[in-house]
Amino acid sequence: MHDLKMKYKGKKMAPAINAFHTFLYTPDETTHSGSHVRGADDLKRTMNTVIMALVPVLLFSVFNAGYQHYSAINGFPENFSLMEHFLTWDNAWIGIIKILPLLAVSYGVGLLVEFIFAVIKGHEVEEGYLVTGILVPLIVPIDTPLWMLAVAVVFGVVIGKEVFGGTGMNILNPALTIRAFLFFAYPTWMSGDKVWVHEARERSEAILAGASNIDAISGETVLGYLAQNNGAAMEAKYTVMDMFYGFIPGSVGETPTLLILLGGLFLIFSKIASWRIMLSAVLGSLVMGFMFNQVVEMGWITETSKFYGLMNFEFWKHLIVGGLAFGIVYMATDPVTGAQTNRGKWIYGFFIGFLSVMIRVFNPAYPEGVFLAILLMNVFAPTIDHYVIRGNVKRRMKRLENAVIHPKDSDGKAAELQAETV
Amino acid sequence: MGLLSKKDTNLILDPLADNNPITIQVLGICSALAITAELKASLVMAVSVIFVLGVGNVVISLMRNIIPSKIRIIVQLIVVATLVIIVDQVLKAFAYELSKTLAVFVGLIITNCIIMGRFEAFALANGPWKSFLDGIGNALGYGVILLIVGFFRELLGSGTLFGIPVLGDPIAKTGLYATGYENNGFMIIPPAALIVVGIIIWVQRMKNPALVEEN
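Output (structure tokens, whole complex):
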């Protein structure tokens, strides 16, 4: 590898070779000028930590894929036991054949695009795609066709990231750009009650075509039931604990709230992700959910309204269904696209939670809005930061005005002092 | 060249590429977003704008010495409005279905920034022949982009070109659809036009780095 690196030095393919090299070894270059702070937590380390926090979620989703598939066919087991019904080879097998290809396509296509851009532009390949690559398969429905995913990944990486200048320069979270592209481009594959459980769609198509030897299966998400004002059927099927542990249908990896919570704590303690964003996003969603609950309490929305199901949903349960927890922990906290200032983070996070629940309730076609809310706040993050910084400047100016300045104006020090503060 | 001197040729050719009203001056974006989901609508829009801008430029140019500069915008508006109403009536008479697709956007040619821009920037200061060429050139530049955007949006979004299916039948699953291909719904909605225009701008500037603005 070292020889290859030397051989290709200065050539067109150099960035690609270098990328492999730094992926395997620590670079041997040192800086030559100025003083530097050495830190062990480089970009690669940061990315790897996030991936570590995602691995349990990925493993869970492998088993959940099979569990949802077989439960949809045979009914949910009466006396659920983790070893007998969940951690089985049959379940894992479904997960492996469905989720591994998604993961492979996501990484393969995404890294290919990154390599091509690095070679064209002659800069080094950045590690930015490592996290995006594992996030993408976790936030799409399980039966997403691989070519659609590939198209979306190309779109997301090129339009969402490379046109802005690559990793660290992007305005929008690339994983969510990919998700949004899929949602708007192929809505029939991204919403409804036939996409969340493996084979549900194929079976319904086969039955439409006249097959009679198979049963139709469907896996409506919790939010899907609620959007149809069918809360009773949902409660009969899934308990609160099911929702918390994640034994419910949904996008591949968004369901296990418990594991996401642990991943979030891990990210907070390793200081990779901002606890301010997570906490304020949770608060934001609770506030919005509580307001909707109150609207129902007041009798403004009755059972005939199409918003009743979602509005009547107890406010704290919003956190354990759908992609809210996943989005808050792994995507709202993206340091590139989020707010940078501490007070900005509070505002940014709060509105993510607030808007997620709001879009979730009012979205007519699809009872979910986390990815839209985060993308929207991504766009607003620089504005929030701008005003926080302006506010800081203003407050300090005021402090300066009220301050008693020694020594007196006569020797010109005050003018100097003022100039420094501005 | 005979009819056209070199300078005159440039009046037509410049706006097609290096001084394109949409990709370089970034004018007339609104209609480029609104009506490019179908190639047919794009074509009609392009032809309408060629007519309005070509004739309008000549009319303004002829009147340029007698228009009081204080009320020139109003005069310009009246000229465009007259021409647009002609286009609108012709469409309603001979292509009623299409005029319904284009709906308000034919009327909104009046507010197309390219038209007012050319009146202000060129026709008020040049003779009728030159103004005519400039109008045709700019409208062509606008039309070319509209057609490119319309081509990609209709092909990827609906699988058709000018309404004729070219990729097979999406419902009966023939042609490309038999392999599992599906139409891209994203291409139908207006933001897609913004992204396609963005990509055109990107490609154009990559080919001709002189167009890239300095910061």
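The CA atoms of residues 23 and 202 of chain B lie 9 Å apart.
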